[in-house]
Amino acid sequence: MTAADVGSLPGVAALVSRSRAIGADPTLVVHGGGNTSCKTAGLDHLRRERRLLVIKASGTDLRTIDVNGFAALFLDDLLATRDRDVFEDDDMTVFFAQSRADIGPRRPSIETLLHAFLPAAHVDHVHADAICALGNGPEPERTVREALGPDVAYVPYVRPGFVLARTVSALSGAEAVVLGHHGLVTWADDSDACYARTRAVVARAERYLAARRAVVPPTTATALPGDAAEALLLALRGRLSRAGRRVLAVDPAGRAIADRADAAAVLAAGPATADHLLRTRAFPIIARGAGEVGPAVEASEQRSTELWRRFRDREPNVGLRDTRPAVALVPGLGTVAAGRDAREATVIAEVAARTHAVAAAVLDAFGAAIPLGDRDLFDLEYWPLELAKLPTGAGRDLEGRIVVVTGAASGIGRDIAVALGSVGAHVALADLDAARLDDVAGTVETAGGHALPCRTDVTREQDIDALVAATIRRWGGVDGAVSNAGVAVTGRIESLGLDEWSRSLDVNATSHFLLARRLMPAFRAQGIGGSLVFVASKNAFSPGEGFGAYSVAKAAEVQLARMVALEGGRDGVRSNVVSPDAVFGGSRLWDMGLREERAAAHGVAPEQLQEFYAARSLLKIPVRGVDVADAVAFCLSDRSSRMTGCVLTVDAGVPAAFPR
Ligand code: ZN
Predict the structure, then answer these.
(1) Does residue 595 sit within a domain?
(2) Which residues contact 201 (CB under 8 A, 6 or more apart)?
């Protein structure tokens, strides 16, 4: 049975549209949470009519789900397990694989038996904020009865699996079941009726909470000033990135929680639902300033390690997990989440927002929250079935790295930005040409990277400051820069105007200084080194007649790179030069007469210039932007970790420009 076959079974189209309706509401489920099912019938591979359960597959998202996100299993096989005494997770996973009616690649949900054992044709399971709030306060059973009426049953927290499935199936006479510290299960024989019941029960919970909500005094916290926020983000990212780079995501809406006087109590309430823990981790932190980051992270890591030491015998095959906290509350700034890349960090921030909203609702309605016990926290954090959902394996070369590229709208800069994106980098794109930058940003994202376009005049101090500030604000820090923006200024010394001379020095020398000067303290504050790559030119080593303003400025750039290497070494900051020659493809350097001017200087026709340059090189081949981009990516990556103060020529071999 293919996904298309499953899609054509009675009831499945209604299941898909109901699932999407649930997934569209983040107060019901977030990012892969919750699951839905329907019971139907169809022909198996021997054309026998069989009863089937169609259920959401593990790791798919209800918001965007289609029929490929579901798995079909033989219902009678599943029901045959009901009278067992025990059914361990591992055995259950194998059993599900052998009970498949379809050939889909994804595993059925961990909660498959819970759906199978309930007799109704349609079943919804959500982690609704309001339901979690009822189940996380004191006396949850009494609260659930009071809020939802006597027909809704309550089951105290137990990790999903066979036991929970059997417990819930014994309550199939109820209107719905609230699972403590977890969520809600509703059912009906008709898809629309099932959805309506989910909505109705959640709405009742919301009304109850609203009626009980204490008056929360308005917060008096003020916004964290920009420089203090930057210092905090750099300290946090640096501290979290020691054991592998982390990218941060700032959610300003998190101030609603972070600014509360009882923010610590919100965090102490723990995850709203067991489902959130995998993302938010057990012990988020609070930090008011850069100085608090280190001790807060340390304390969180200690608690995580302690938890593992106490209970590790329960999962002897799973070693100590990454203990770094994934979420920080920063008063005056919001929620800050840390992930392997920007996408993961954003998801964690969204999940944290839900968990904190529930904790705040619990505190406002009941005055106190009852968190999951340490043992349950351990069982969730070290649950092999959940850990299997996490990505594994080595990342791409610049995964989690944050790099500024100037002159990124065209030519070499564009090629560099796209190449860095294709190996996972987060790239801040700087250029004067905002329209072209947006286009490059799209290409970087398509290549698998993350892009932040910033219109920048690299000769203006305030623009460089804003560029670096925006980068740190977006991703939490910065690992390197490719100082690439340049402009061609031609003319013999005796006929060169002072304004032309100054313009070349501003763009081709001073702009590199401004960027390096802004980045050096940021690298030091992060404490995880940095890498600067200066895109120079063959002219820095072998100047061309009539090209003085350019050649002198490019020589200054090379000397600047060496100064940065000298002064940055103690902070682990590397500085290298990539020196190309005669790169044409898409470069705007050759516009505005340069091509004609250089062609005349060499005594060839303008259209022969590229050929002329190739012919004068040792390898007799043209140099492309991607060749320069490869060298730059190498200089930014850890593969060049022992290289600083170095010049890499990418010029197909020009003996006169051998660096010395
Ligand atoms: Zn669940």
Answers:
(1) no
(2) 131, 148, 152, 175, 176, 184, 186
pLDDT, tens only, 37-48: 999 999 999 999
183 in Cβ contact with 198 (< 8 Å) = no
Q: State in Å, rounded, how far the first CA of the chain is from the last one.
A: 68
Please indicate, yes or no, whether residues 542 and 479 belong to a single structural domain of this protein: yes
Query: H/E element holding 574?
Result: strand 573-580
Rounded to the nearest angstrom, the distance between the alpha carbon of 183 and the centre of ligand 1 is 6
Quick one: which of 379, 454, 466, 438 has its CA closest to 163? 379
What is the pTM assigned to this prediction?
0.92
Instruction: Quote the CA–CA distance of 9 and 12 in Å, as a whole number.
Output: 6
Q: In degrees, to the nearest 5, what angle opens at C-alpha 239 toward C-alphas 233 and 241?
A: 95
Q: What is the pLDDT of residues 351-406, one digit of tens each?
A: 999 999 999 999 999 999 999 999 999 998 898 877 777 766 667 899 999 999 99
Q: How far is CA 406 from CA 409, 481, 485, 512, in A?
A: 8, 8, 5, 9
**Is the separation of the CB atoms in 414 and 444 below 8 Å?**
no
By annotation, the residues acting in catalysis are 550
List the domain range (segments joined by +) for residue 532: 402-587+622-650
- Distance (angstroms) between ligand 1 centre and the Cα of 110 equals 9
Q: Which residues contact 563 (CB under 8 A, 6 or more apart)?
A: none
Q: Rounded to the nearest whole angstrom, what is the distance from the C-alpha of residue 380 to the centroid of ligand 1? A: 12
Q: Using CA atoms, how far apart are residues 504 and 51, in angstroms rounded to an integer?
A: 77
pLDDT at 95: 94
CA 142 vs. chain centroid, Å, equals 40
Question: Is the confidence at residue 520, as pLDDT, over 90?
Answer: yes
Whether residue 362 is contained in a domain is answered as yes
Does residue 494 share a domain with residue 439?
yes
Query: Residues with beta carbon < 5 A to ion ligand 1?
Result: 183, 275
The upper half-sphere exposure of residue 298, i.e. CA atoms within 13 Å in the direction of its Cβ, equals 6
